[in-house]
Specification:
Layout lengths: L12 H13 L2 H10 L26 H11 L15 E8 L2 E7 L12 E4 L2 E2 H9 L10 E7 L4 E7 L9 E3 L2 E5 L2 H7 L5 H22 L10 E4 L4 E4 L7 E2 L4 E9 L5 E6 L11 E4 L6 H13 L3 E12 L9 E10 L13 E6 H10 L2 H16 L30 H13 L6 H9 L1
Parallel strand pairs: 1-6, 12-16
Antiparallel strand pairs: 1-2, 1-4, 2-3, 2-8, 5-6, 7-8, 9-10, 10-11, 12-13, 12-14, 13-17, 15-16
The chain binds zinc ion.
Catalytic activity: a 5'-end NAD(+)-phospho-ribonucleoside in mRNA + H2O = a 5'-end phospho-adenosine-phospho-ribonucleoside in mRNA + beta-nicotinamide D-ribonucleotide + 2 H(+)
Protein name: NAD(+) diphosphatase
Cofactor: Zn(2+); Mg(2+)
Length: 447
């Protein structure tokens, strides 16, 4: 099943309640639209992390506390432990440098266009390799520097992440003849094949690990007393080391509303451009939720502030962890909505946006059709292969997408890794009356 496009006719139970309460106030036409638009549920990039689905109970050997105790007793025995029987569970570590996970690249080895591009994999290393890697830089492996990610029970493994932020761009590491390199998560995201469950699982694991490590980096001191925070529960939370304070802190999530604003006739959608976007890219409005406001209020306020448009009904679609935002925010949670406009006149806040315009469904459909998402994915995958070979030093992608030169579309929308893509494509599909064939429809426009 397509990892990114899981689609069903069922709704989330809790959201059904939300949608019902909205629907009671809705007009007949927007009620019809809402019902159709919320029929599609989506598992997005960075969601569906297989290591996180069920945290083991504390008595389980895979649990954070049990695994941490095993890890702590094991570290002093390294490097001799590899000659003994491997511990059960064993441990694997994913190193990060400056927010970039360690990866390696393999050729697909298959025939045909679909398997023509290289494939990236997370660069898990053993505890002994991790200790050796740090020792080569004069650093002792401390169990408190490892952050618990979760178990792979079927492989008798517990997975950890560690921040080794010293590597410069283009440095290639070699473990057991594998060439590995630290690569930007955004590049991995663009390069991940969205129909490959393994690739999407690895992207979700990398996103979660990056978010945790980034939170550890920016939460070193207590916000109450200024004392040093120390990791607890295998790095899943922290606590102030000042005994008189003892404040507990938990990994930070920054909620953001992202909304596709639709006109009353359900013919046009409001898309906007930020100055940081690549040329011709248009997307949904988005903004941070402020203290003391509901999600619906945040949708209405942000839309009003950025475009001067008044929003009435607000209908939830889906959510996406977004660990590739600014580093001061370890992980944003994008909460996706459809927002039904009560007014049409646009008054763009130029400090927030470069432009905002109403676009017809036909124009938006064209933008989906002509963006070469598959080509961009393969280009990024090839770039990662070059980085891992030490050939390519720069990490950035100059642009996420090229648009077919034969029939240049005036705009395109973000790729299938972004919730904006799914909000927009759901609306396009809803209008064409084929909401029940969502996976096929999206596959078509993304291939
Ligand atoms: Zn404190």
């Amino acid at each position: 099943m397509l990892a990114l496009f899981l689609s069903s006719s069922s709704s989330y139970p809790t959201l059904t309640f939300l949608a019902r309460s909205v629907a009671r106030r809705a007009t007949l036409s927007s009620l019809t639209m809402s019902t159709n638009l919320r029929r599609t549920t989506t598992t997005h990039a960075y969601a569906g992390n297989p290591l996180k689905s069920k945290t083991p109970k504390s008595t389980d050997s895979f649990s954070p506390s049990s695994a941490f105790d095993s890890l702590k007793s094991l570290i002093p025995q390294i490097p001799n432990h590899h000659t003994a029987t491997p511990p059960s569970p064993d441990f694997r570590v994913l190193p990060f440098s400056k927010g970039r996970p360690l990866v390696f690249s393999t050729g697909s080895g298959g025939d045909g266009e679909a398997s023509a591009s290289p494939i990236w994999h997370l660069g898990w290393i053993s505890l002994a390799e991790c200790k050796g890697m740090l020792a080569s830089r004069g650093v002792d492996l401390d169990e408190n520097s490892l952050v618990y990610l979760g178990p792979k029970v079927e492989e008798d493994l517990v997975c950890w992440a560690v921040d080794v932020s010293e590597e410069e761009d283009g440095v290639v590491l070699v473990f057991e003849s594998r060439k590995l390199c630290f690569v930007e998560l955004r590049t991995l995201m663009v390069a991940a094949d969205w129909v490959d469950q393994r690739a999407m699982d690895e992207l979700a694991i990398a996103g979660h690990a990056r978010a945790l490590l980034e939170w550890h980096r920016v939460s070193r001191f207590c916000g109450s007393c200024g004392g040093a925070n120390v990791p607890k529960e295998a790095g899943r939370r922290k606590q102030c080391s000042n005994e008189a304070c003892g404040k507990r802190v938990y990994p930070r999530v920054d909620p953001v509303v992202i909304m596709l604003v639709i006109d009353r006739e359900n013919d046009r959608a409001l898309l906007s451009r930020q100055s940081r976007y690549v040329p011709r890219m248009w997307s949904c409005l988005a903004g941070f939720i402020e203290p003391g406001e509901s999600l619906e209020e945040a949708v209405r306020r942000e839309t009003w502030e950025e475009t001067g448009i008044e929003v009435g009904d607000v209908v939830y679609h889906s959510s996406q962890p977004w660990p590739v935002g600014p580093s001061s925010m370890p992980c944003q949670l994008m909460l996706g909505f459809f927002a039904f406009a009560k007014t049409l006149d646009i008054n763009v806040d130029k400090e927030e946006l470069e432009d905002a315009q109403w676009h017809s469904r036909e124009d938006v459909k064209k933008a989906l059709t002509f963006a070469e998402y598959r080509k961009a994915q393969r280009t990024a995958a090839s770039k990662i292969e070059q980085i891992c070979k030490g050939v390519e030093k720069s990490q950035g992608l100059s642009t996420d997408f090229n648009v077919e030169s034969g029939e240049l579309a005036p705009m395109f929308i973000p790729g299938p890794f972004a919730i904006a893509h799914h909000l927009i494509s759901t609306w396009v599909d809803q209008g064409s009356g084929n909401v029940h064939s969502k996976p096929q429809a999206v596959s078509r426009v993304c291939s």
